[in-house]
Amino acid sequence: MEGVCLTCGLYTNLEAHHVAGRHNHATLTVPVCSDCHRILTHWQLAAGIELHHDADVSDLDATRALLVGALHLLVLYGQRHGDVTWVRAPLSVHMARAMSKLLDVMEPASRPGRWLPDPTVPPLEAMPVRWPAASEADRITQMADLTLELSRILREQPPFSPETLTGISTDPVGFQAKFNNAAGDLAWLTALLEVVTEYGELSESIVCRLLQLDGVDAIDESLLVAAAGWADTVHRLFTHLSTLFGPQKRAA
Predict the structure, then answer these.
(1) What sign results for the dihedral spanned by CA atoms 217, 219, 224, 230?
(2) How many CA atoms does the CB half-sphere of 110 hold within 13 Å?
(3) How far apart are CA 106 and CA 109, in angstroms?
(4) pLDDT for 152-182, tens place per residue?
(5) Closest CA to 139 of 8, 2, 1
(6) 124: left (phi over 0), alpha (psi -120 to 50) or beta
(7) What pLDDT score was predicted for residue 246?
(8) What predicted TM-score, i.e. pTM, was given to this entire model?
């Protein structure tokens, strides 16, 4: 099957990558090229995500695999397009590690299916590629569909309403045009970049703290305050972005 790779944006032959590994969530796949698929699978193995078809897997570790696998997509996108991405690849790496460590300490270490990073798998980074602007509409659709599917699996409300995401997926060219028009407003773009910067700084602070955790009891008040500030920043970020989607939502 030919199409646009979600993570590098090139138009080429595609393969179905299981975001959490087929054994953890068999139905959630994204279209990627063979090179990106190889890298993503390598990262799953390096993280210790259980991929063997008959291994025991707890519900918690299947969720860990899903969330870490989703962040792997952001990491790869960031490495491929570091000159244009808003979320830096190292931040996504640290977020995945912190999320995995925090979830890991929520159940006994002796549980069936618990997975650990594999030190025998060497580090691997993706080569940057040119930003293929012509494929942007396809990737907008793919990301909107992925967000909807992740929300369904996790039974969580997506950052934007399902109707808005469906509208974006249905009319990616219209969404792109609205975003480009808004980006032409210097005041709007400056405000958005300030919120994104604040999000990045708070995220880096929080994940650094989480990566040092020995257990859930190590979550102190200062970390909770920082997390609350992060949540407020995320809320303001999506509120700011939602100014783009009002017409889109009504049209959905």
Answers:
(1) negative
(2) 0
(3) 9
(4) 999 988 888 898 899 999 999 999 998 889 8
(5) 8
(6) beta
(7) 63
(8) 0.90
Q: Which tokens in the block code for residue 100? A: 């995995």
DSSP alpha helices (H): ranges in 4-83? 34-47, 59-80
The encoded tokens of residue 219 equal: 């979550």
CA atoms within 13 A on the CB side of 224: 6
Q: Taking each helix axis from N to C terminus, what angle separates 172-183 and 136-154, rounded to the nearest 10 degrees?
A: 100
CA distances from 177 to 136, 140, 181 (A): 11, 12, 6
Q: Give the strand pairing for 11-13 and 2-4.
A: antiparallel
Nearest to 55 by CA among 25, 29, 24: 24
Burial class (CB in 10 A: 0-12, 13-18, 19+), 208: exposed
Alpha carbon dihedral 150, 156, 157, 162, in 10-degree steps, equals 40
Rounded CA gap, 53 and 47, in Å? 17
Helix, coil or strand: residue 177? helix
CA neighbor of 164 nearest in space, from 180, 142, 144: 144
